[in-house]
Structures are given as C-alpha cells and as structure tokens.
Amino acid sequence: MNKRLREKIIEQLLAMCAMVTILTTIGILYVLVSEAYAFFSEVSIIDFLTDTQWTPLFADKHFGILPLLSGTLLTSLIAISVALPTGLIIAIYLNEYASKRFKTVIKPILEILASVPTVVYGFFALTVVTPFFQMIYPDMSGFNSLSAGFVMGIMIIPYVSSLSDDAISAVPRYIREGSLALGANRLQTAFKVILPSASSGIIVSAILAISRAIGETMIVAIAAGQQPRLTLNPLVPIETITTYIVKVSLGDVAHDSLEYRTIFAAGITLFVFTFLLNNISYYLNKKLEKKYV
C-alpha cells in the first residue's frame, strides 16, 4: 500500500468520524420534529405557547408550556447567579494573585465538582441545603427551586471558573504590564483591564454554563418537585422541562398517545432554547474578539 493510498484512507476515516456528530444531530432533529409535528397537529401551537396551565396527564387537559418554561428559567437564573460571580472571582484569584504551585493544586480540585454525579447533588440539595434555607425562610416548601438552583450553581462553577481562567490567561502579558506601569493597582488591573479584554471568553463560559443548567435533570427532579407552576417564587415546588420528560418517559403513559408526544414538544422547546443560546454565544464571542483585538 503506497503512501498516497494510506493518506486517502486516513482522510476518509477522519471524515466519517466528523460525520458521526452531524448525523447524530440530524437524527435527533428528525425524531423531535416528526413527533412534535404529530403533537401540534392535534394541539394548537398558540395554546402551547400561551396557556398558563400544563396538565396533559389530567382529565382536564391543558398544554401550555409556560409553567415548565418558567420553572426551567427560574432554576437556571438562580444557578448562574451563584456560579458566575463565584467562578469569576476564582478565575481572577488564580490568575492574578495565586502562586503557580497553588493554582496547579487547586484547579484540578475545583474541577472535581463537575465529575460528581448529579444525583448526589440532588440529594445534597434535598437533605442539606433545603433544611438550611428553611431556617432562614420558615415558609419554604420541602421541594423548591431555590435549593435546586443553588446546588446547580455550585455544580457549574467549574464550567465558569475553568473557561474564564483560560480566557484570562490568554490576555497578553503586556496589557497587564501597561496597566501597572500607568499606576493602576492589581485590583484595578484585574477588573478594569483584564476582564474587559477577556470578556468574549467569559461571556461564552457564562452562556455554556446556562445551557448546562437548563439541561440539568436529576437535581431539579429530586429537589425542586414535580408541580408545574407559573411562578417566580423560588420557595415553592416547580417542574422543569427536563423533569417532565423524565417523568413521562419512565412512566405508564402509552406510546404513540397525545400525552406521550408532549415530551417531544417539550424537548424541541428545550432544543430551540439551547440552540439559540449557543448561537448567541458564538455571535458575542466573534463580536467581542473584533472589539478587543
């Protein structure tokens, strides 16, 4: 076998590997769109987007996605409110203040948080965090979005801190030195010079962390409850899109029924949200890269 033929075979193998991800995405889209189309042929998309009740498994059926959507967005908002400032502070400290030896030791330890099974986080939220918050808010329900969102925030801290750390590390050294030479102290340099210069990577890390929070299942299934409710109150039980999908897909709902197809309608809604977030991340990254280059 000559060298040219070997290179051609390797090239084809690499192309096939690249096609796996594309074909997988196409397959997922095909299943979601085809099943969602069957669902929307029976349920008005206007009712789906505007109805404030989600009771497809009850006798009085309503198919409004807003309660599931509000629960998903509420827990994700709480999570990013915890993870973003904490992750940024960690990234700034590791880059601007910590010694290289300390950073070498502490960064892998932080990333262990991302490897802990989410079911463990869920029971931690239910048995530790919720009782703690109930000491502060006595009226808090045993299942609530505050505890679930708070623990989700802890879980995604490594996503924010690691990606932000990489973005800050990529800022050229002469920018730091120029700021210090002009009389700025380390804190001013970090927050007024380094963060704006690394803003594209930081924003991308935040959006990816939000996408991770939106797609989380086990924590919200265990700690947030399974009561679809259109509310912004973090102290009461809610249900997210992912929790509902798991509940129905593992339950006794007959396949090919309208009730079962609701998981595909919910799934395509989730897919659209994460798709939009990823595209916003890409657009902001490109725009900010041009601004600060």
In short:
With 293 residues, the protein is mostly helical. It is built from 12 helices and no strands.
Describe, in plain words, how this protein is organized in 3D.
74% of the residues lie in helices and 0% in strands. It has twelve helices and no strands. The protein is an all-alpha fold and 293 residues long. The longest helix has 38 residues, at 3-40. Helix 3 (66-96) packs across helix 6 (145-169). The mean pLDDT is 86. The termini are far apart. It has two domains: 3-41; 49-292, MetI-like (MetI-like fold, Orthogonal Bundle), CATH 1.10.3720.
Q: Give the termini separation.
A: 48 Å
- Compute the number of strand runs: 0
Q: If you average the pLDDT, what whole number results?
A: 86
Characterize the quaternary organization of these chains: single chain
Rg, Å, rounded: 23 Å
- The secondary-structure element order is HHHHHHHHHHHH
- The share of residues in extended strands comes to under 5%
Q: Total domains, how many? A: 2
The parts where pLDDT drops under 50 for at least 5 residues are none
Largest sheet composition:
none
Helix content: over 70%
Tally of separate helices: 12
CATH class call of the largest domain: Mainly Alpha
